[in-house]
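Reviewer 2 asked us to include a model.

Predict the structure of this chain.
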Amino acid sequence: MPAHLLFVFLAVGLPGDGADELSRVEKASLDSRLAVRTITVSLRRQSEDFLPKPDSRRGEMNIWFDGRRLRVDHTDHYPSLERMNGKRRVECFHCLRPGTLFVYNDTDQLQSTVTKIAADSFVSEDISFDPRLLGYSFASLSLLRHAHLDRVFARTYRKNPRVVVERWNGVECQVIRYDYDGGTVAIWCDPARGHQPIRLEKMSGTAQYLVEIDLQPVHGGHWYPKKITNRVTTEGKLAESETVEVGDVTINKPISEEVFSLSGLGMRDNTHIYSTADAERDWMWRGGKLVKFRDVKKSETTTPVVPTPLHPPEPTPYWLYAVAAVLAVGAFLALRLAFRRAKKS
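Predicted model (structure tokens):
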């Protein structure tokens, strides 16, 4: 799915749309997720591509978000990833300090990186994303990295926006419908569960994007997805599908500082860390702390000095070895002569 198809439906208070009910429903839905200040969640993902040729990918994710810092541990099982196939990757945003992204790849190469990022950024080259967005977009997990709940709700151009009441799957929903150049959008929101979406549908030419969300109650009166299915069809043929299953989830409970610390990332000893956010570029994780890489290399390449004994032993004179040899030969000859005499007698 191209990145430009990323579409988050909420657009709170759109000027000129003349639909107070629309704004009210959208604001209620947005507030439901903005009430999530901290979250810990585990996900399992299975995606399939059918066009132009079959392909599949699966993975697991563990996410911690405290409103300021985001840590994502994910493992993808995908042969084309080569050295990262089945390996754990850790991305920690604003953990080392604000404005930095720390990435650790748990491979035999033992390498990590530190880079500068924007103060409000939760964006990386892989699949990190704001976990509060889950179930609020037509996009797959791999595209949600472009979004953040506090700033993605742009004023999207819409035609004929309206709210209608419809039943879907036995649930009475408030459905947001509107047109846009090239297609239509419909979002089924459940008023009884925080106006959160339980179904999204987008028609664009011959393509249909369909997302269905099973919600689950979470301690504290919150609702969060339990399962999400995302399907894309083109000319009536299934082109892509993705299923996301949510495991353990906790909302608005304290998260241990250890989670966002380097010591809590589970890095292996002697991991080389390269930083573009510090004057000192090369570091190493050793003995549970950061040390300068040049200091490590210096200590490993220095030849240790062997101390000289204060009172070295005196060398043995060579003539003593000669005397010992003569005595040994003489003793051997004497024994041999005595043996012959005893034999004659």
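Residues 318-344 form the longest helix (27 residues). The chain is about 15% helix and 40% strand. We have added this to the supplementary material.
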